[in-house]
Design brief:
Blueprint: E1 12-15, E2 21-23, H1 26-32, E3 37-41, E4 48-52, H2 53-65, H3 69-81, E5 83-86, E6 92-94, H4 97-103, E7 109-115, E8 118-123, H5 124-129
Antiparallel strand pairs: 1-7, 2-6, 3-4, 3-5, 4-8, 7-8
Length: 130
């Protein structure tokens, strides 16, 4: 990520295509700069988190240092639903079928926003209940 750039603000309405690819808005693509590898998962079963690979490694390191069954359960759940992908030439990242099905975001319009160290993706049902 470009550490000098301001993170994007607000939400973006996007769509996940039939192959599970999510096209990222150009604001986010510019913010990520040279980062090309991402990891998508969920920690709560309601929203998808897309981490740049380096951030995912940091979060995993922090969780693994905690001596807690809860932290271990979160890591197991994140790995169970998660998947890695590289951003393609059309600024799309892939989200695993298992994760898309769990969150009911296959071939759907979704909202996304930048939150601290990841992109948060959620379906319109989650948006309406907020």
């Amino acid at each position: 990520m470009d550490e000098t750039a301001q993170p994007p603000r607000g939400t973006y309405l996007c769509r996940i295509d039939d192959k599970g690819r999510l096209k990222l808005p150009m604001d986010l693509v510019r913010f990520f700069g040279a980062y090309t590898e991402f990891f998508s998962t969920s920690l709560d079963g309601k929203t998808c988190r897309i981490y740049p690979a380096a951030e995912r490694e940091r979060v995993e390191r922090e969780l693994s240092q905690l001596d807690s069954e809860d932290a271990e359960a979160v890591l197991l759940y994140a790995h169970h639903l998660g998947g890695s992908s590289e951003i393609d030439g059309l600024s799309r990242v892939w989200i695993s079928r298992e994760l898309r099905d769990k969150l009911q975001i296959s071939e759907q319009r979704v909202r996304l926003r930048w939150v601290k160290d990841h992109i948060e993706v959620y379906n319109e049902k989650v948006d309406e209940s907020a």
